[in-house]
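@channel sequence for tomorrow's demo:
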Amino acid sequence: MSGEAATSSAEERFKELGLEFPPSPKRTGNFLSAVRVGDLLFLSGQGSHDRLGKIGVDFDVDEGYQAAREAGLRSLALAKEELGSLDRVKRIVKILGFVNCEAGFDRNPQVLNGASDLMVEIFGDAGRHVRSAIGAIALPHDFAVEIEMVLQLEPDRS
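structure tokens (generated this afternoon):
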């Protein structure tokens, strides 16, 4: 997981990895999907729509890793929708991750590596971020994983 992505744009790297953006979810509450403050973009929580249930009960850690990766893709889809291009992202600042699990499950960091590894694959060293990995007894819609992100943006060129 080196900074090899620095040699190509985030958009190019996304395509090279064969990734596809999932459809944007429909918002069901009185909140925004994304908010810009200065050069930061705050993204609302995104869940693993394809994996519903508890890690350690319904899914193993490897499947949880994939669920976190999916939640990361959904977050990047929101960013692209807001910005027009992932190339506007200067760096990933923070990921706050929640893992749907039973009490006593302690492998939350390994699960959330799915989202963290994805960011480094796409953004190289600019994808490295601070992170919290929290176990939760329940998540909305029974998502296996939910993450929210903070991104730093490149300066506007307009």
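heads up for whoever presents: The two ends are 34 Å apart (CA to CA).
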